[in-house]
Amino acid sequence: MEPGSPRTTSARAAAPRPMTSRALALLALGFAGAALAAPAPDQRAAAARATADANPHCRAVQPFYWSIGDAHGVVADGRVGARAPAATTQMPIASASKLVYAAFVAQRRQGQLTADDVRHLTFTSGYTHFRACRRGQTIAECEARGRNGEHADATEGRFDYNGGHMEHHALLEGLGDLDDAGLARTVNDALGTSFRYLQPQLAGGIATSAADYGEFLRRIVDGQLQMKALLGTHAVCTNPTTCPSAAASPFAQEDVHYSIGHWVEDDPAHGDGAYSSAGAFGFYPWISQDKAAWGVLARFAPSFGGAKAGAASLLCGREIRAAWMSGTAR
């Protein structure tokens, strides 16, 4: 046909052909698949509640409060077990503080991290002797306490899960004069949050509620905070048994990665790619791999078991998340 010449078709050629029974069947399967891929909100919520109540991993961590939300707010929640905390119950959240500090740095940098930021926020900077701060200290005083501010050459460039990375980074950021209250004001002003610091420890000093932390996660998912674009970036391997560049990890039972102040739950056998920041006392916040949903499992289980309470909450929270995503109880 010449360019620009009129296209002619007969009425017979233009008429659609009737669909075969096979095509109709495939179309029906397509609609069914779409329905399965997007269960109704009520179905999701019922599945999440049933899982929180009865799943063995969740029975093991009662009592607790859980919530799931999206960019607009909470869409499902519940309290499980006798004397379970409420959405507004304040509690120390330990390492769930790490995602907060990472988000704070991201806001200060307008989303453009330096190489030095990445070293400190992926825990490969070599500052791995940190233990704790005292209430009322400044960040500089905490850094100077004991061996907190020492650099370990043996862990330089290797993943080592330790609060010293963030404490030293804060000192480099010029925050050394801030005490608990000053740190809280500075972080909250940057993030639009309402966190409280029990000690000037960036990696583990926050006390807050599930409701307030959930609002922080909602702001990430909604794109109000620069952290959304950084989720999962610059990830490093963490399992010392399978990764030569990993020195120490509280979750060495899984082959997961660590990104900017948060875990990437991408273990081939168990993970779903979610981004999370479990705390040693059992507070477990997460954002789904597609960055569309967020959740919190809130409980306070003081112990000397290291990260065991956080790991246990992760197992329950992961099941609740899977139930919500699939619409099927676990």
Protein described:
The radius of gyration is 24 Å and the shape is globular. Helix content is 36%, strand content 14%. Strand 1 and strand 2 (73-80) form a beta hairpin. It contains twelve helices and 13 strands. It has 330 residues and is α+β, with helices and mostly antiparallel strands. The strands form three sheets. Strands 2-1-13-12-11-10-9-7 form an eight-stranded antiparallel sheet, with helices on both faces. It has a single domain (41-326), classed as 3-Layer(aba) Sandwich (Beta-lactamase), CATH 3.40.710. The relative contact order is 0.17.
Give structural attributes.
three-stranded antiparallel sheet, eight-stranded antiparallel sheet, Beta-lactamase, 330 residues, 12 helices, alpha+beta
SS field, number of helical segments: 12
Largest sheet: 8 strands, antiparallel
- Average per-residue pLDDT, rounded, comes to 90
- What CATH calls the topology is Beta-lactamase
Strand content: 5-15%
The CATH superfamily is DD-peptidase/beta-lactamase superfamily
Categorize the overall geometry.
globular
DSSP summary, beta strand count: 13
Q: Rg from C-alpha positions?
A: 24 Å
